[in-house]
Amino acid sequence: MPPCHLYGRRDGYEPLYGCRDPQSLTQRSGALSFMSYYVYIIQSQIYGTFYKGSTENPLNRLEQHNLGHTLSTRLKRPWKLVYIEQLPTKTEMLIREKKIKRGNKEYFEKLMKGDKNILDDFLKK
After folding, report:
1. Where are the beta strands (DSSP E) in 25-96?
2. How many CB atoms are located within 10 Å of the residue 98 CB?
3. What pLDDT is recorded for position 43?
4. Angle at Cα 54 formed by Cα 49 and Cα 56, nearest 5°?
5. Separation of alpha carbons 23 and 46, rounded Å
């Protein structure tokens, strides 16, 4: 338990903000790996409409959309990933998501062809 939690809350819940346990970082091949943040665009394979969102795990989020766990996308299944952009911080992810959500179909098509779309590289991992 990290030192800041030794005298923690009496109700047993961990604080939402504050220190983090350095042991909780995952290790991959000897190096510490930090959380990645992504904005994504999915397209309905039947209707052609787009949905824009943000997540820490795009493939898991796509699965949730296709299983009908998201009310706003449930009726237009199945969905496919057409755009993924990686961002270094959660704040930057949320700002970028807000900007992308203001776009139109032409803007999304431009993004899909652009350099920021890491979809192909992401799927190779």
Report:
1. 27-28, 31-32, 37-44, 50-55, 79-87
2. 12
3. 97
4. 135
5. 45
The number of helices, as runs of H, and strands, as runs of E, in the chain is 4, 5
Give pLDDT, residue 34. Answer: 64
Given a contact cutoff of 8 angstroms between Cβ atoms, the answer to whether 96 and 116 are in contact is no
Residues 6+ apart with CB under 8 A from 111: 41, 83, 85, 100, 103, 117
Query: Could you tell me how many residues make up the chain?
Result: 125
Residue of 121, 115, 113, 108 lying closest to 44 (CA atoms): 108
Note the pLDDT tens digit of each residue in 14-36: 443 344 433 333 333 334 446 79
Structure tokens at 59: 């493939």
Cα angle for residues 116, 118, 66 (degrees, 5° grid): 120
Amino acid, single-letter form, for residue 10:
R
102 falls in which pLDDT band (50, 70, 90)? very high
Map out the domains of the chain with their CATH numbers: 37-124 (3.40.1440)
